[in-house]
């Protein structure tokens, strides 16, 4: 976590973890955008939000400079640092939001059986979009980061709406 939360254990309703491959592009952008969307709706106090990657290649690094640049018009993600998903995350978080199908498969492979229901495809919360995955912009140009952010924005709004619906459970949809 970035330490920006002011919530207490009594107020947190959902612990969300955004996951991608290296935790320097999509998942930190999703963490930042969701945090901003929840804050704009006055609901940030209900969430503990973090992001992580499948690998530890970028451990401790700030998000990719292109991700930071693209995100800056929407949210500042410069204070985040990459980390690898750990087994404890499957216990600590209510919902693990994967950016693509490969991330889902990787998460399912390492998740304890009892925690697999917590893994969700992030874009499932934006069913009006034609895409299922947030494409990895790392090897592309700047337009890829903007496109990923557009998808992340739509999914963040849908996720927040779903979690705030009466009777909605974090791991159900």
TrEMBL record:
Residue ranges occupied by any Phosphotyrosine protein phosphatase I domain in the UniProt entry: 14-162
CDD domains: LMWPTP
EC number(s) reported in the record: 3.1.3.48
Keyword Ion transport applies: no
Active site per the UniProt annotation: 20 (nucleophile), 26, 136 (proton donor)
Gene Ontology MF term list: protein tyrosine phosphatase activity
Pfam family, one: LMWPc
Transmembrane segments: none
UniProt entry keywords in alphabetical sequence: Hydrolase, Protein phosphatase
Family stated for the protein in its record: Belongs to the low molecular weight phosphotyrosine protein phosphatase family.
Protein name as annotated: protein-tyrosine-phosphatase
């Amino acid at each position: 976590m970035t330490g920006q939360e002011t919530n207490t254990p009594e107020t947190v309703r959902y612990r969300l973890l955004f996951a991608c491959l290296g935790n320097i592009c999509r998942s930190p952008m999703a963490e930042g955008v969701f945090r901003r969307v929840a804050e704009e709706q006055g609901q940030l106090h209900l969430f503990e939000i973090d992001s992580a990657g499948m690998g530890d290649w970028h451990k401790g690094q700030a998000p990719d400079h292109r991700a930071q640049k693209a995100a800056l018009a929407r949210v500042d993600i410069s204070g985040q640092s990459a980390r690898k998903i750990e087994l404890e995350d499957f216990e600590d978080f209510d919902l693990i939001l994967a950016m693509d199908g490969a991330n889902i498969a990787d998460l399912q492979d390492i998740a304890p059986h009892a925690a697999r229901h917590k893994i969700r495809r992030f874009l499932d919360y934006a069913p009006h979009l034609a895409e299922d995955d947030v494409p990895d912009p790392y090897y592309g140009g700047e337009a890829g980061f903007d496109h990923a952010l557009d998808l992340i924005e739509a999914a963040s709004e849908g996720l927040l709406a779903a979690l705030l619906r009466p009777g909605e459970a974090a791991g159900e949809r």
